[in-house]
Amino acid sequence: MATVSAKAEDVKRSWFVVDANGKTLGRLASRIASVLKGKTKPIYTTHVDTGDFVIVVNADKIHLTGKKLDQKTYYSHSGYPGGLKSVTAGKLMKTKPERVLKMAVEGMLPKTRLGKQMLSKLKVYAGDKHPHAAQQPAEMKF
Q: Which three-class secondary structure state does DSSP give residue 123?
């Protein structure tokens, strides 16, 4: 028996649509991260991006459990002294609901060039419309 290692030219990418309406943030993010990594495919190889494209619609209707809307805080730093900024999850959901899901998925992907390549295959939209109809995405059930 020989171990088969996938090559970049052997990977066939599919497109999937996920409706985030009423889904819990962490559970949805972990499923999306698995699809982006390619772990749902039999040809999964750790050093090759074998994942599929994922389109997420209705990101503004995602559900956070407990008191996370008030207590969960996202931080960013400009790099300058005193440049620390913070925003709560509730405020971020009102202004940029796509960022909440994208940051959750980003935290579950590798922190390498390969992880950035995987994250670029994630398309998140706040409403129920997306501009990727030409790719004929399949509906993904969770």
A: strand
> Could you read off the pLDDT of 34-48 as tens digits, one per residue?
999 999 999 999 999
Which CATH architecture describes the domain 13-64+97-139?
Alpha-Beta Complex (3.90)
- Report d(CA 50, CA 44) in Å as an integer: 6
User: Can you tell me the distance from the alpha carbon of 131 to that of 102, in angstroms, rounded to the nearest whole number?
Assistant: 18
CA distances to 74, 76, 83, 100, 141 from 70, rounded to whole Å, are 11, 18, 22, 14, 30
Q: C-alpha angle 28/29/35, rounded to 5°?
A: 95
The domain ranges of the chain are 13-64+97-139
Tell me the two tokens of residue 109: 């992907």
Which residues are CB-contacts of 42 (< 8 A; sequence separation ≥ 6)? none
Query: In what helix (H) or strand (E) does residue 92 lie, and over which residues does it extend?
Result: helix 89-95
How much is the pLDDT for 141?
A: 83
Contact 114, 122 (CB under 8 A): no
